[in-house]
Amino acid sequence: MRWSVAALVAMVVLVMVVQEVDPANILFLAPTGPRSHKNFFMAIAEVLATKNHTVTFVTGIEASQNRTNIREVFVPGMDVYKYLPNLFTSNKIEIVQAMMPLLAKFCTDALAYEGMQSVKEEKFDLVMLSGFGTECFYSLVDKFKVPYIFMYSLSLAPAYADMAHSTHFSSMVPNLMFDLKYPLTFTGRMFNTLHDTAGIYYAYYVIFKMMVAECQERKLCPEDISTFYRMRVNGSLVILNSVETLEIPIRPYTATVVHAGGIHCKPAQPLPQELEDWIAEAGNAGFIFFSLGSTVKASTMPEEYRRVLVEVFASLKQRVLWKWEGTMEDLPPNVRLTKWLPQQDILGDHRLRLFITHGGLLSIQEATYHGVPVLGIPVHIDQHHNIAQVQREGWGRFVYWADLTYDTLRQQILEVIQDTKMREVVTRRQTVMKDQPVPPGQWVTYWVEYVLRHHGALHLRSPIATMPWYELYNVDVWLVVLVVSTLAVILTFISLRALLYAVYTCLSAPTKHKQQ
């Protein structure tokens, strides 16, 4: 009874404190990026739409269904992965170098797309845009003269910390591009700091200028480049795809950073009957789920990798559900191929023994949410870091494609399935992920509506974004202290030396008595 009264009081207080906001017309700008990124952005759009806000979603991924209060503007030709080298055989640096020039072109292509012209003339109350690869849209956002919010489908990268009015500490946060382990050694901190600094320089003076130059050359953006720099640091919020309480290490953030990791996660629903019957036939052995996500086409992997997978899966007593485009002539009887699968419904099935994944952030979050240990075979940029982190945390293992052999893969699969401690670790992480004051959807909705209620919430902005780095870290102060301290030591040394010399001279000088 006491708990019921307390809950009722809490609900009344919330209703009194949280002011209502009128339904808003919101523009989402996320024309580039893979389907997984859209899943994160769409989850945000959906929670806002349930609050009667109208969302116009500009995207390069075709709509899979109609959604209430959400209008999708599809921009064709935005699949950057069609133009990249084979993800199975290329390294991260090669992929990044190939991707960046394409993003500049794709951004301006989206801005110039005929379907965008009517959108440019509409009136919006708020703009929410992907923080990466949308720089050419800054001038359009500036034209609307409304508050705007950045969204990131990853955690906060060093080059974008200023957009969040926050700061990044290379001394403790390992870079996603490299397999550095926290806590960092001196060598690790040195390497991490130099790489982060180079990354910030590259983002500002290569990618950003490349975007702006492409946009200006096509007469889609103003010649005044200061507009772009101003827009970069004047957003109201940054929404991250990160669970703050699961970050390693925990980091300091300003009030303008909103964590929405797991916003796309949902309880498992019953499986389609045909799939349910197939899994039920596996008996007590259960089944394994293997998926490389929505971006990577599994059918593009080299044949030697496919053969290893087929041989290993055929040797297992578990059934294997494999997301694969097409058919196989040598398919083992315990393996089932399908082009699309309800991933979260599968991850939530109690008969699942292992999730073999590429290690995308959304898949890692879903595995945590449903409490499933994983075996990672990373393919793309940040996935290597994600999977290495999983292994360090103790709820999975990883193997690189270059090291993929029958013995290696089979050993890793059996180790994860048989190690009960891994299941315990992921269950603890599942508990932490779900132990939040409010679900991430409500958290995001509150802060987006807060920005609407307070006309951009300018009072939340930290001066970090606009302060020179040497002022932020008191480099000039410490230089003065160092110089003054050094001068004081030098002057003290000179004075003492002169004093000692004078004393020595007086003591060693002959007296008149001795001279007589």
What does this molecule look like?
It is built from 18 helices and 13 strands. The strands form two sheets. Strands 3-2-1-4-5-6-7 form a seven-stranded parallel beta sheet, covered by helices on one side. It has a six-stranded parallel beta sheet with strand order 10-9-8-11-12-13, sandwiched between helices. Residues 1-9 and 11-16 have low confidence and may be disordered. Helix 11 (361-370) links the parallel strand 11 and strand 12 (374-376). The protein is of the alpha/beta class and 516 residues long. The longest helix is centred in the C-terminal third of the chain and has 34 residues, at 475-508. It is globular and about 110 Å long. It folds into three domains: 22-261 and 437-467, Glycogen Phosphorylase B (Rossmann fold, 3-Layer(aba) Sandwich); 273-434, Rossmann fold (3-Layer(aba) Sandwich); 472-503.
Number of spatially distinct domains: 3
Annotation field: number of helices = 18
Q: What low-confidence regions span 5 or more consecutive residues with pLDDT below 50?
A: 1-9, 11-16
Biggest sheet character: 7 strands, parallel
CATH class identity of the largest domain: Alpha Beta
Dominant shape? globular
Q: What is the fourth-level CATH superfamily of the largest domain? A: Glycogen Phosphorylase B
Pairing-aware structural class of the strands and helices?
alpha/beta
Question: What portion of the residues fall into strands of 2 or more residues?
Answer: 5-15%
Q: Biggest sheet, strands in spatial order?
A: 3-2-1-4-5-6-7
Give the N-terminus to C-terminus distance in angstroms.
112 Å
* Mean pLDDT across residues: 90
